[in-house]
Design a protein that fits this description.
The chain is of the alpha+beta class and 330 residues long. It contains ten helices and 13 strands. The chain has helices at residues 7-15, 26-34, 38-51, 81-89, 115-129, 175-184, 194-202, 206-219, 251-259, 290-304, and strands at residues 54-61, 68-74, 94-100, 106-112, 134-136, 138-144, 148-149, 155-156, 222-229, 238-244, 264-270, 281-287, 309-319. The strands form three sheets. It has a nine-stranded antiparallel sheet with strand order 5-2-4-3-13-10-12-11-6. It has a two-stranded antiparallel sheet with strand order 1-9. Helix 2 packs across helix 3, helix 6 (175-184) packs across helix 7 and helix 7 (194-202) packs across helix 8.
Length: 330
Protein backbone atom coordinates (compact mmCIF):
# COMPACT_ATOMS: atom_id res chain seq x y z
CA UNK A 1 0.00 0.00 0.00
CA UNK A 2 1.15 3.56 -0.67
CA UNK A 3 1.02 4.90 2.88
CA UNK A 4 1.94 3.18 6.13
CA UNK A 5 -1.02 1.92 8.13
CA UNK A 6 -1.13 1.01 11.78
CA UNK A 7 -2.04 -2.59 12.70
CA UNK A 8 -5.54 -1.43 13.67
CA UNK A 9 -6.01 0.51 10.42
CA UNK A 10 -4.81 -2.44 8.37
CA UNK A 11 -7.12 -4.86 10.22
CA UNK A 12 -10.15 -2.64 9.64
CA UNK A 13 -9.28 -2.24 5.95
CA UNK A 14 -8.46 -5.86 5.23
CA UNK A 15 -10.50 -7.99 7.62
CA UNK A 16 -13.84 -6.17 7.73
CA UNK A 17 -14.76 -5.93 4.06
CA UNK A 18 -17.57 -8.39 4.82
CA UNK A 19 -19.48 -9.73 7.81
CA UNK A 20 -19.76 -6.35 9.53
CA UNK A 21 -21.88 -6.87 12.67
CA UNK A 22 -25.65 -6.55 12.42
CA UNK A 23 -25.94 -5.40 16.04
CA UNK A 24 -27.26 -2.18 17.61
CA UNK A 25 -23.70 -1.06 18.49
CA UNK A 26 -21.62 -2.67 15.73
CA UNK A 27 -18.46 -0.64 16.33
CA UNK A 28 -18.36 -1.77 19.95
CA UNK A 29 -18.76 -5.39 18.80
CA UNK A 30 -16.06 -4.89 16.17
CA UNK A 31 -13.81 -3.33 18.81
CA UNK A 32 -13.91 -6.53 20.84
CA UNK A 33 -12.58 -8.38 17.78
CA UNK A 34 -9.76 -5.93 17.07
CA UNK A 35 -8.88 -5.17 20.69
CA UNK A 36 -9.87 -1.50 20.59
CA UNK A 37 -12.63 0.59 22.10
CA UNK A 38 -15.72 1.71 20.21
CA UNK A 39 -14.56 5.36 20.13
CA UNK A 40 -11.15 4.38 18.76
CA UNK A 41 -12.67 2.17 16.05
CA UNK A 42 -15.01 4.94 14.88
CA UNK A 43 -12.23 7.55 14.91
CA UNK A 44 -9.93 5.23 12.96
CA UNK A 45 -12.56 4.57 10.28
CA UNK A 46 -13.25 8.30 10.02
CA UNK A 47 -9.54 8.94 9.51
CA UNK A 48 -9.31 6.24 6.83
CA UNK A 49 -12.31 7.71 5.04
CA UNK A 50 -10.75 11.19 5.13
CA UNK A 51 -7.55 9.74 3.66
CA UNK A 52 -9.54 8.24 0.80
CA UNK A 53 -8.78 4.61 1.68
CA UNK A 54 -12.46 3.86 2.34
CA UNK A 55 -15.27 4.69 -0.04
CA UNK A 56 -18.00 3.84 2.46
CA UNK A 57 -19.03 1.26 5.01
CA UNK A 58 -22.13 -0.61 3.98
CA UNK A 59 -23.77 -2.87 1.44
CA UNK A 60 -22.57 -4.10 -1.93
CA UNK A 61 -25.66 -5.22 -3.84
CA UNK A 62 -25.76 -8.25 -6.09
CA UNK A 63 -26.02 -7.41 -9.82
CA UNK A 64 -29.58 -7.66 -11.18
CA UNK A 65 -31.03 -8.58 -7.78
CA UNK A 66 -31.32 -4.92 -6.92
CA UNK A 67 -32.45 -3.48 -10.25
CA UNK A 68 -31.02 -3.05 -13.73
CA UNK A 69 -27.50 -2.30 -14.86
CA UNK A 70 -25.14 -2.45 -17.79
CA UNK A 71 -21.55 -1.82 -18.86
CA UNK A 72 -21.43 0.85 -21.56
CA UNK A 73 -18.80 2.41 -23.79
CA UNK A 74 -18.32 5.43 -26.01
CA UNK A 75 -15.77 6.16 -28.74
CA UNK A 76 -14.98 9.78 -27.94
CA UNK A 77 -12.75 12.03 -30.07
CA UNK A 78 -9.63 12.73 -27.95
CA UNK A 79 -10.20 16.49 -27.99
CA UNK A 80 -13.68 15.99 -26.45
CA UNK A 81 -12.81 13.33 -23.90
CA UNK A 82 -12.84 15.47 -20.76
CA UNK A 83 -16.03 17.27 -21.83
CA UNK A 84 -17.87 14.03 -22.57
CA UNK A 85 -16.53 12.29 -19.46
CA UNK A 86 -17.88 15.16 -17.34
CA UNK A 87 -21.33 14.83 -18.94
CA UNK A 88 -21.36 11.08 -18.27
CA UNK A 89 -20.06 11.38 -14.71
CA UNK A 90 -22.66 14.03 -13.86
CA UNK A 91 -25.45 11.47 -14.15
CA UNK A 92 -26.27 9.86 -10.76
CA UNK A 93 -26.97 6.54 -12.48
CA UNK A 94 -23.28 6.29 -13.49
CA UNK A 95 -21.06 4.88 -10.73
CA UNK A 96 -17.80 4.00 -12.53
CA UNK A 97 -16.38 5.98 -15.43
CA UNK A 98 -12.91 5.24 -16.84
CA UNK A 99 -10.83 6.14 -19.86
CA UNK A 100 -9.31 2.96 -21.33
CA UNK A 101 -6.72 2.28 -24.00
CA UNK A 102 -8.92 1.48 -26.99
CA UNK A 103 -10.89 3.10 -29.81
CA UNK A 104 -13.88 2.66 -27.48
CA UNK A 105 -12.11 4.78 -24.91
CA UNK A 106 -14.72 5.74 -22.28
CA UNK A 107 -16.19 2.88 -20.23
CA UNK A 108 -18.82 3.33 -17.56
CA UNK A 109 -21.32 1.37 -15.48
CA UNK A 110 -24.95 2.47 -15.31
CA UNK A 111 -27.48 1.22 -12.76
CA UNK A 112 -31.15 2.05 -12.32
CA UNK A 113 -34.26 0.76 -10.61
CA UNK A 114 -35.60 -0.93 -13.76
CA UNK A 115 -34.85 -1.61 -17.43
CA UNK A 116 -36.93 1.29 -18.73
CA UNK A 117 -35.09 3.80 -16.53
CA UNK A 118 -31.79 2.29 -17.62
CA UNK A 119 -32.71 2.58 -21.30
CA UNK A 120 -33.79 6.20 -20.82
CA UNK A 121 -30.48 7.01 -19.14
CA UNK A 122 -28.46 5.50 -21.99
CA UNK A 123 -30.56 7.40 -24.55
CA UNK A 124 -29.99 10.64 -22.64
CA UNK A 125 -26.22 10.06 -22.54
CA UNK A 126 -26.20 9.44 -26.28
CA UNK A 127 -28.20 12.60 -26.90
CA UNK A 128 -26.10 14.73 -24.54
CA UNK A 129 -22.74 13.57 -25.89
CA UNK A 130 -23.55 12.98 -29.55
CA UNK A 131 -21.68 9.67 -29.31
CA UNK A 132 -23.29 6.26 -30.01
CA UNK A 133 -23.48 4.12 -26.87
CA UNK A 134 -22.50 0.45 -26.74
CA UNK A 135 -24.36 -1.41 -23.99
CA UNK A 136 -23.23 -4.88 -22.86
CA UNK A 137 -25.79 -6.43 -20.53
CA UNK A 138 -24.73 -9.00 -17.94
CA UNK A 139 -25.59 -12.59 -18.79
CA UNK A 140 -23.78 -14.67 -16.15
CA UNK A 141 -21.49 -13.85 -13.25
CA UNK A 142 -18.69 -16.27 -12.45
CA UNK A 143 -17.07 -14.12 -9.78
CA UNK A 144 -18.02 -10.57 -8.78
CA UNK A 145 -16.87 -9.24 -5.46
CA UNK A 146 -14.20 -6.50 -5.40
CA UNK A 147 -13.15 -7.35 -1.89
CA UNK A 148 -9.34 -7.05 -1.79
CA UNK A 149 -6.89 -9.07 0.24
CA UNK A 150 -4.36 -6.39 1.10
CA UNK A 151 -1.81 -8.76 2.62
CA UNK A 152 -0.22 -9.41 -0.79
CA UNK A 153 -1.18 -8.41 -4.29
CA UNK A 154 -4.65 -7.22 -5.19
CA UNK A 155 -6.70 -10.35 -5.09
CA UNK A 156 -10.19 -11.13 -3.92
CA UNK A 157 -10.59 -11.57 -0.21
CA UNK A 158 -13.17 -14.26 -0.90
CA UNK A 159 -13.34 -16.73 -3.76
CA UNK A 160 -16.67 -18.24 -4.70
CA UNK A 161 -17.16 -19.52 -8.24
CA UNK A 162 -20.23 -21.37 -9.37
CA UNK A 163 -21.74 -22.84 -12.50
CA UNK A 164 -23.72 -20.08 -14.22
CA UNK A 165 -27.42 -19.93 -13.65
CA UNK A 166 -30.11 -17.55 -14.75
CA UNK A 167 -30.35 -14.86 -12.12
CA UNK A 168 -33.80 -14.33 -10.66
CA UNK A 169 -35.52 -11.05 -11.51
CA UNK A 170 -35.40 -8.19 -9.03
CA UNK A 171 -38.02 -8.65 -6.30
CA UNK A 172 -40.73 -6.02 -5.96
CA UNK A 173 -40.08 -3.98 -2.81
CA UNK A 174 -42.45 -2.06 -0.58
CA UNK A 175 -42.18 1.72 -0.28
CA UNK A 176 -40.71 1.20 3.20
CA UNK A 177 -38.02 -1.11 1.87
CA UNK A 178 -37.20 1.24 -0.98
CA UNK A 179 -36.72 4.17 1.40
CA UNK A 180 -34.29 2.11 3.47
CA UNK A 181 -32.42 0.82 0.41
CA UNK A 182 -32.05 4.36 -0.98
CA UNK A 183 -30.65 5.60 2.34
CA UNK A 184 -28.31 2.61 2.56
CA UNK A 185 -26.64 3.43 -0.75
CA UNK A 186 -24.64 6.20 0.96
CA UNK A 187 -23.33 3.77 3.58
CA UNK A 188 -23.54 3.77 7.36
CA UNK A 189 -22.86 6.85 9.43
CA UNK A 190 -19.77 6.43 11.60
CA UNK A 191 -21.72 6.79 14.84
CA UNK A 192 -22.15 4.47 17.84
CA UNK A 193 -25.65 3.39 16.71
CA UNK A 194 -25.55 3.70 12.91
CA UNK A 195 -28.58 1.46 12.29
CA UNK A 196 -30.73 3.67 14.53
CA UNK A 197 -29.54 6.73 12.59
CA UNK A 198 -30.29 4.98 9.29
CA UNK A 199 -33.78 4.06 10.50
CA UNK A 200 -34.48 7.59 11.70
CA UNK A 201 -33.98 8.84 8.15
CA UNK A 202 -36.49 6.30 6.85
CA UNK A 203 -39.12 6.27 9.61
CA UNK A 204 -38.03 2.82 10.83
CA UNK A 205 -36.93 1.46 14.16
CA UNK A 206 -33.40 0.22 14.71
CA UNK A 207 -34.75 -3.34 15.12
CA UNK A 208 -36.64 -3.12 11.82
CA UNK A 209 -33.50 -1.95 10.00
CA UNK A 210 -31.48 -4.85 11.39
CA UNK A 211 -34.20 -7.34 10.45
CA UNK A 212 -34.33 -6.03 6.88
CA UNK A 213 -30.53 -6.12 6.49
CA UNK A 214 -30.23 -9.67 7.79
CA UNK A 215 -33.04 -10.80 5.49
CA UNK A 216 -31.54 -9.11 2.43
CA UNK A 217 -28.17 -10.67 3.19
CA UNK A 218 -29.74 -14.13 3.47
CA UNK A 219 -31.70 -13.79 0.22
CA UNK A 220 -28.65 -12.57 -1.70
CA UNK A 221 -29.74 -9.00 -2.41
CA UNK A 222 -26.77 -7.83 -0.34
CA UNK A 223 -23.66 -9.57 -1.65
CA UNK A 224 -21.43 -8.38 1.16
CA UNK A 225 -21.65 -5.83 3.95
CA UNK A 226 -18.59 -4.07 5.34
CA UNK A 227 -15.75 -1.71 4.50
CA UNK A 228 -15.52 -0.78 0.80
CA UNK A 229 -11.92 0.13 0.03
CA UNK A 230 -10.75 2.33 -2.83
CA UNK A 231 -8.15 0.21 -4.61
CA UNK A 232 -6.48 3.11 -6.43
CA UNK A 233 -5.81 4.92 -3.16
CA UNK A 234 -4.47 1.68 -1.68
CA UNK A 235 -1.78 1.58 -4.37
CA UNK A 236 -3.39 -0.75 -6.96
CA UNK A 237 -3.25 1.63 -9.90
CA UNK A 238 -2.95 -0.79 -12.82
CA UNK A 239 -6.48 -1.75 -13.78
CA UNK A 240 -6.95 -3.93 -16.88
CA UNK A 241 -10.20 -5.09 -18.43
CA UNK A 242 -9.34 -8.34 -20.25
CA UNK A 243 -11.91 -9.33 -22.89
CA UNK A 244 -12.39 -12.53 -24.90
CA UNK A 245 -14.45 -13.39 -27.97
CA UNK A 246 -15.36 -17.03 -27.27
CA UNK A 247 -17.78 -19.51 -28.85
CA UNK A 248 -21.12 -19.36 -27.06
CA UNK A 249 -20.96 -23.05 -26.22
CA UNK A 250 -17.51 -22.69 -24.57
CA UNK A 251 -17.74 -19.39 -22.71
CA UNK A 252 -19.27 -20.73 -19.48
CA UNK A 253 -16.69 -23.46 -18.95
CA UNK A 254 -13.81 -21.08 -19.65
CA UNK A 255 -15.38 -18.36 -17.53
CA UNK A 256 -15.49 -20.67 -14.51
CA UNK A 257 -11.82 -21.55 -15.04
CA UNK A 258 -10.69 -17.94 -15.35
CA UNK A 259 -12.69 -16.93 -12.28
CA UNK A 260 -10.50 -19.24 -10.19
CA UNK A 261 -7.39 -17.18 -10.98
CA UNK A 262 -6.61 -15.46 -7.64
CA UNK A 263 -5.69 -12.13 -9.24
CA UNK A 264 -9.03 -11.82 -11.10
CA UNK A 265 -11.38 -9.56 -9.18
CA UNK A 266 -14.32 -9.78 -11.60
CA UNK A 267 -15.27 -12.40 -14.16
CA UNK A 268 -18.53 -12.38 -16.05
CA UNK A 269 -20.24 -13.00 -19.36
CA UNK A 270 -21.91 -10.11 -21.17
CA UNK A 271 -23.95 -9.81 -24.34
CA UNK A 272 -22.09 -8.97 -27.52
CA UNK A 273 -22.85 -5.63 -29.19
CA UNK A 274 -22.48 -6.49 -32.87
CA UNK A 275 -21.13 -5.38 -35.25
CA UNK A 276 -18.99 -3.06 -33.10
CA UNK A 277 -18.07 -5.33 -30.17
CA UNK A 278 -17.91 -9.13 -30.35
CA UNK A 279 -16.39 -9.92 -26.94
CA UNK A 280 -18.51 -11.90 -24.51
CA UNK A 281 -16.23 -12.75 -21.54
CA UNK A 282 -14.66 -10.16 -19.25
CA UNK A 283 -12.05 -10.38 -16.49
CA UNK A 284 -10.87 -7.50 -14.34
CA UNK A 285 -7.30 -7.60 -13.05
CA UNK A 286 -5.90 -5.06 -10.58
CA UNK A 287 -2.24 -4.64 -9.67
CA UNK A 288 0.19 -2.07 -8.40
CA UNK A 289 1.66 -1.66 -11.88
CA UNK A 290 1.54 -3.17 -15.37
CA UNK A 291 4.41 -5.52 -14.62
CA UNK A 292 2.25 -7.12 -11.94
CA UNK A 293 -0.80 -7.41 -14.22
CA UNK A 294 0.80 -8.66 -17.45
CA UNK A 295 1.74 -12.17 -16.19
CA UNK A 296 -1.85 -12.62 -15.02
CA UNK A 297 -3.13 -11.70 -18.48
CA UNK A 298 -0.72 -14.24 -20.01
CA UNK A 299 -2.08 -16.98 -17.71
CA UNK A 300 -5.66 -16.08 -18.61
CA UNK A 301 -4.84 -16.22 -22.33
CA UNK A 302 -3.15 -19.63 -21.93
CA UNK A 303 -6.14 -21.02 -20.06
CA UNK A 304 -8.65 -19.68 -22.57
CA UNK A 305 -6.55 -20.63 -25.60
CA UNK A 306 -7.41 -17.25 -27.15
CA UNK A 307 -5.52 -13.98 -27.34
CA UNK A 308 -7.62 -11.45 -25.42
CA UNK A 309 -8.04 -7.75 -25.78
CA UNK A 310 -6.43 -5.85 -22.89
CA UNK A 311 -7.84 -2.43 -22.04
CA UNK A 312 -5.77 -0.76 -19.33
CA UNK A 313 -7.35 2.18 -17.59
CA UNK A 314 -5.78 5.57 -18.22
CA UNK A 315 -7.89 7.87 -16.05
CA UNK A 316 -10.58 7.40 -13.45
CA UNK A 317 -13.26 10.04 -13.86
CA UNK A 318 -15.72 8.61 -11.32
CA UNK A 319 -15.92 5.76 -8.83
CA UNK A 320 -18.68 5.40 -6.26
CA UNK A 321 -21.29 2.90 -5.11
CA UNK A 322 -24.07 1.83 -7.47
CA UNK A 323 -27.33 3.81 -7.27
CA UNK A 324 -30.36 1.63 -7.82
CA UNK A 325 -32.86 3.19 -5.44
CA UNK A 326 -32.24 6.97 -5.34
CA UNK A 327 -35.58 8.76 -5.12
CA UNK A 328 -37.49 5.49 -4.70
CA UNK A 329 -40.25 4.93 -2.17
CA UNK A 330 -40.92 8.61 -1.55
Amino acid sequence: MDAPYSPLEFSLLNDWQRNFPFQPQPFAALGVKVDAGETVVIATLQRLQQRGAISRLGAVFAPRRAGAGTLAALAVPPQRLEEVAALVSARPEVNHNYQREHHWNLWFVVTARDRSTLAATLAAIEADTGCPVLSMNLRHEYHIDLGFDLTARAQPAHRDTEAPAELPPAVARSAEELRLLAALEDGLALLPRPYAELGARCGLSEAAVLDYLAGWKNEGLIKRFGVVVRHHEMGYRANAMVVFDLPDDAVDAIGIQLAREPAVTLCYRRERCLPHWSNNLYCMVHGRNREEVEPVVARLAATAGVTPGVLFSVRRFKQCGARYFAGAGR
